[in-house]
């Protein structure tokens, strides 16, 4: 569902909330009762329509949405909302525009910190599936040049801005300034050639996106677009870029310690 570019999110808060929170039947992207029971056992998980939110560090919130794939069940995907003064920054969209609209509304109404800019970590639907919702809300969007080039081939909407990176992997220029206090780092190709990572130094946290897997993971998941040869080095580069990050968040596992990075490197070395 495409959001209408001229429609401010604030003006539709009541109608959107009613639509998001009033759904009673199981539909595309909705949280199943079984998932709701599972989340009830976690600490401080807030459900808002098709999205779950959980604070993982001071000023840092994880958003989780699901894509229900026949034969596989609901697949979770995580991103972040990071508070920055009177506003916030979004790391990755949800799977869909509808889910992403709920994230925008939650940040605006529940958190009271409207999203002013968003960065997406690579060109897959779990990270860029809600770009039209962001553009409909006039939110500035940023992605690696490679992500914007690949996005149309995958039926995804590119970000409106590209991120320049120095030879050391760190974002530079106007994009780096616009996304501060986020520290944007390109570790090299791993899960995809365009995967980027995000650090929040003030919260001793970092987001590895789909590059990093949980400490209990037994595989690296989808490798269709992966750089198999460089994957282990990319994960190591991520670790070296954020040595003080104690909370490691990722796309498809719950946030945890740096053990997630250690396990990812181990799994990647087994690909050789």
From TrEMBL:
GO biological process, one term: antibiotic catabolic process
Reported cofactor(s): Zn(2+)
Domain Metallo-beta-lactamase: 76-252
Compartmental location: Periplasm
Gene: bla
Chief localization: periplasm
Assigned protein family: Belongs to the metallo-beta-lactamase superfamily. Class-B beta-lactamase family.
Catalytic activity: a beta-lactam + H2O = a substituted beta-amino acid
Source organism per UniProt: Pontixanthobacter gangjinensis
Presence of the UniProt keyword DNA damage in the record: no
Keywords: Antibiotic resistance, Hydrolase, Metal-binding, Periplasm, Signal, Zinc
Pfam families the record matches: Lactamase_B
EC class name: hydrolase
Enzyme Commission (EC) number: 3.5.2.6
Subunit structure: Monomer.
Protein name: beta-lactamase
